[in-house]
Amino acid sequence: MQLNQAIGQHCLLDVYQLTSGWLQDAIAIEEVLVQVARVAQAHILASHFHTFGGSGGVTGVLLLAESHISIHTWPEHHYAAIDIFMCGQLLVEVAVAELQQLLPDAQMQIRWLAREYLPKTYIRQNS
């Protein structure tokens, strides 16, 4: 019997060497993340992106029926933190491959997490 059952894949990406112009452009960032979601066949429910003033970065999220894609950028460090979490049968690997194609000059450190749950028989009940 398998104790843990994966209900989704969660991918954390540290993305380096991006141009500071892109890291400050909420519209361009949203276009990239929407393309990533579409290629993975995710269903976008809503999106919200905010640009911080001056030379600040962008924070944003695509709310998906299958979970989310989020980003936080630091233009002064040429860095973005991207989070892709998708449940069900969607392949997060496809989303990551598309992101790599859309940002070909970026260096990425990628960490994978299987989001798992324990069957009820293995969860302690509160007394």
Short description, anyone?
The protein is an alpha+beta fold. It has 3 helices and 6 strands.
Overall CATH architecture: 4-Layer Sandwich
CATH class: Alpha Beta
Radius of gyration: 16 Å
Global shape: globular
Unreliable runs: none
Q: How many DSSP-defined strands? A: 6
Class from secondary-structure proportions? alpha+beta
How is the biggest beta sheet arranged? 6 strands, antiparallel
The end-to-end span amounts to: 27 Å
Could you describe the 3D structure shown?
With about 130 residues, this protein is of the alpha+beta class. It has a single domain, classed as S-adenosylmethionine decarboxylase (4-Layer Sandwich), CATH 3.60.90. About 25% of the residues lie in helices and about 45% in strands. The chain has a six-stranded antiparallel sheet with strand order 2-3-4-5-1-6, covered by helices on one side. α2 packs across α3. The mean pLDDT is about 90.
Describe the secondary-structure layout.
Elements: E1 5-16, H1 20-23, H2 26-39, E2 44-51, E3 58-64, E4 67-74, E5 79-87, H3 92-102, E6 107-117
Antiparallel strand pairs: 1-5, 1-6, 2-3, 3-4, 4-5
Helix pairs in contact: 2-3
Question: Which descriptors would you attach to this protein?
Answer:
127 residues, alpha+beta, S-adenosylmethionine decarboxylase, 3 helices, lyase, spermidine biosynthesis, decarboxylase
